[in-house]
């Protein structure tokens, strides 16, 4: 892949679902000499070859810290993202958008050679749910009502302006589908179902049915497979966006088979009303606007990643989701603040 020996790489958001897999993948590559994992809070876990630093990107004084951190660094992998509070988008905007801009600007000041940014399928405008999927030229205007999509889309515009100003920096934008692994189960349960819902209540065998909704077609990828694509993006002289997903696309029938449930046709308005009520009463943190976005996400064509990164996921979409479901049953996690396991199991 044309790797350069001894690369120094900084990874932001290094203690979350994606970050823990990315730092492990990079640290295990002989072409990487040093990995610095950056997060708001230091983790208890240790990864051979990874040094941890605590930096809060939402703070106005973080640029000075970043300047010192990025001096002499070859590549930055920017994963840091805050999903909550969904009821206060100003807080997530400060962390996700302003924090990302600070990372981009610090990378430019430091003269890093590569900036790999975690975008998302959520950055894409609504698109087709069938067929071969959309490639990386599909518009990235997101679904404007959903804060997550709005922020991811805005950062695409930021990078559109950043790249012409800094042609010497290799900018890569990763646009994965839904990322799951066993150890992310507790974190993702808290993000979408809330802290007060015990994992035992989300056991697949307790779910009587899967809602069969028009547009419910998901592309899932094991986080460790996504990490290998990030590793390749750091070590390969590529630029531009890359779609990442595993086969097959999961619809209600496939989801029902995984959960041992049966698909039941429901009106989307009914499901949305129930979710909206739960969100407005703060019973669950997942917003109805994100539900709207999920039903409109396009199917992705990942040919570019296969060809230019020589990347192919080792696990199917079913295997990735099965690993996550096993984690839900067992309360799996890691010794980091975001991935702390659940005492509920």
Jot down its keywords.
38% helix; 345 residues; globular
Question: What's the topology here?
Answer:
Elements: E1 7-12, H1 17-27, E2 32-39, E3 50-54, H2 62-70, E4 75-78, H3 89-110, E5 114-118, H4 147-165, E6 170-176, E7 178-180, H5 185-192, E8 209-212, E9 220-222, H6 223-235, E10 240-244, H7 252-259, E11 262-265, H8 268-280, H9 288-294, H10 303-308, H11 317-330
Parallel strand pairs: 1-2, 1-4, 2-3, 4-5, 5-6, 6-10, 7-9, 8-11
Radius of gyration: 19 Å
State the helix count.
Answer: 11
Q: How do the strands line up in the largest sheet?
A: 3-2-1-4-5-6-10
Uncertain runs: none
Q: Kindly state the percentage of residues in helix.
A: 25-40%
Query: How far apart are the termini?
Result: 42 Å
Shape: globular
Task: Give the overall pLDDT as a whole number.
Answer: 92
Percentage beta strand:
15-25%
Structural class designation = alpha/beta
* Total strands: 11
Largest sheet: 7 strands, parallel
SSE arrangement, N to C: EHEEHEHEHEEHEEHEHEHHHH
